[in-house]
Design a protein that fits this description.
By secondary structure, the chain is an alpha/beta fold. The protein folds into three domains: 119 residues, no CATH class; 131 residues, Rossmann fold (3-Layer(aba) Sandwich), CATH 3.40.50.720; 166 residues, 2-Layer Sandwich (Dihydrodipicolinate Reductase, domain 2). It is 32% helix and 24% strand. The strands form four sheets. An eight-stranded mixed β-sheet has the order 8-9-10-5-4-11-12-13. Strands 15-16-14-17-20-19-18 form a seven-stranded mixed β-sheet. A four-stranded mixed β-sheet has the order 2-1-3-21. A hairpin with a 4-residue loop joins strand 19 and strand 20. The chain is globular and about 65 Å long. 45% of the residues are buried.
């Protein structure tokens, strides 16, 4: 047998194993509300090739490829346990098991590592929580996709309605089509049908009422059977407490803004300060995509090295706020053609850091350049540290943060030397450290942080909503053993 034959045979074996993993992962998700992860990447509803690629990606951050032959025994062990709602990371199980010298079997080690989610310790499955989207633009439709994707277990978050302004003939058909096909993020994973008579979009069995209103005060959500819902405002029209309070109508309990909040509205970056949300807080903000990209790595660097001051320069994809061709705009430069120019503009991300990281004493300044790409941006974070270090030390530290720290869902890490912006379309992390671009000289560190300013940010929004609704389930094994 040739080397090529050996490689092909090995691939077919791994294909077969990955194929057999799919029903096990699906059953755990549907019946027990367990989300199976691999180094923070969900394996739910993934294809055979996607599962194999996710295993191979582990080499980028862990230094070696994980094989399904290594993780399958842990997945099989999970199916024998009395698990409650949780997230379980096969990558972490395999990594920790390799480092364990007690001679335990895979089944014994797995049962011990996830004991907090089994038997008397397990969390009871909660009733689904109603969610309403106010606005259905770029972020609104991506959040909708995520909510629909995560509704498979029947528990957790349930998208009940979308509120939009009337757009004329076949409005609902056109909006459903925009949900179905996206020029950047591709086809919707599932089926979408439209019931025009009842003003309803049905996506993967989820009935979503389309409500037409020009103002929040015009809607009584209880008329649609909606109770105690979380409303996600994707319009950015109201950003202070007074304006956002207009959404607190019958049927709505909490309001989440997908833009930086003003005044005393809490700006939340999941993974950093989401645990500071007060149970009775009704209005909060998920800050901006750039704030979510820079705050987690900034916190990580401050925790380890201390940060005395910093500057962030964002090279940001253009957005719908800009013009296709030169035209009037209330901002001085944003009126110039977005696909034809690099446009210097302001960013509020640096000032928003103080709200998300109040204990950070360092002054952070910032500016931004909009560039002619439709999605994925990069933040260049230039930091003066409290002590000197080396590139190798920062490199290894950030890689470890991405693997085992409480910020592993926010911070990703890539070592590919030829990575470019389009490689990160669809990333679910708030930011991705580009290891090859990292620069360190004594007490100065420059981090290059990619982020999908649409999808990665939408994932952060959904995580905040899961947290405030009580359906953000714990992850096992515990971080950093």
């Amino acid at each position: 047998m040739t080397v090529n034959d050996d490689s092909f045979t090995n691939w077919k074996i791994r294909e077969e194993i990955a194929e057999s993993m799919i029903p096990l992962i699906g059953k755990l998700h549907r019946e027990q509300d367990v989300t199976v992860l691999l180094h923070s990447r969900s394996l739910v509803n993934k294809s055979v090739v996607s599962i194999l690629k996710t295993h191979r990606f582990a080499r980028q951050i862990a230094g070696a490829e994980l094989s399904v032959t290594e993780t399958m025994p842990f997945l099989q062990a999970l199916t024998t346990l009395d698990l409650g709602p949780s997230q379980i990371d096969l990558g972490m199980l395999a990594t920790l098991y390799q480092a364990d010298d007690r001679g335990l079997s895979v089944a014994e080690f797995t049962a011990e590592a996830v004991a907090g989610a089994t038997g008397a310790n397990k969390i009871e499955r909660r009733e689904s929580r109603d969610v309403v989207l106010y606005g259905f633009g770029r972020i609104g439709r991506l959040v909708a996709r995520l909510l629909i994707e995560k509704s498979g277990s029947g528990n957790g978050l349930r998208l009940r309605a979308v509120v939009v302004r009337g757009g004329g003939a076949q409005d609902i058909v056109k909006r459903a089509s925009l949900l179905r096909r996206d020029s950047i993020h591709g086809q919707f994973q599932g089926t979408i049908t439209v019931d025009e008579d009842n003003s309803t979009i049905v996506a993967n069995g989820n009935e979503i009422k389309v409500i037409y209103a020009d103002d929040p005060s015009h809607v009584d959500y209880t008329e649609y059977g909606i109770r105690d819902a979380i409303l996600i405002d994707n319009t950015g029209k109201w950003r202070d407490r007074e304006g956002l309070s207009k959404h607190l109508r019958p049927g709505i309990e909490k309001v989440v803004l997908t833009a930086p909040g003003k005044g005393d509205v809490p700006n939340i970056v999941h993974g950093v300060n989401h645990d500071t949300i007060k149970p009775d807080e009704q209005i909060l903000s998920c800050a901006s995509c750039t704030t979510n990209a820079i705050v987690p790595p900034l916190k990580a660097m401050d925790d380890e090295y201390g940060v005395l001051r910093g500057h962030v320069e964002t090279v940001h994809s253009f957005t719908n706020d800009q013009n296709l061709l030169d035209n009037y705009h209330k901002s001085e430069r944003r009126g110039r053609s977005a696909p034809l120019n690099m446009v210097i503009t302001e960013t509020g991300a640096a000032s928003a850091v103080a709200k998300a990281l109040p204990d950070l004493k360092a002054k952070i300044s910032g500016s931004s350049i909009r560039v002619p790409v439709p999605d994925v941006s990069i933040a260049i974070l230039n930091l003066q540290l409290a002590r000197e270090t080396t590139r190798e030390q920062v490199h290894d530290y950030l890689r470890e943060v991405s693997l085992t720290s409480p910020l592993k869902r926010q911070i990703d890490f890539i070592t590919a030397p030829d990575a470019v912006s389009s490689d990160f379309i669809g990333s679910r992390h708030a930011s991705i450290v580009d290891a090859g671009a990292l620069k360190v000289d004594g007490d100065n560190a420059i981090l290059y942080l990619w982020y999908d300013n649409e999808f990665g940010y939408s994932c952060q929004v959904v995580r905040v909503v899961q947290h405030v609704s009580g359906v953000e389930y714990p992850t096992y094994p515990a971080t950093a053993v």
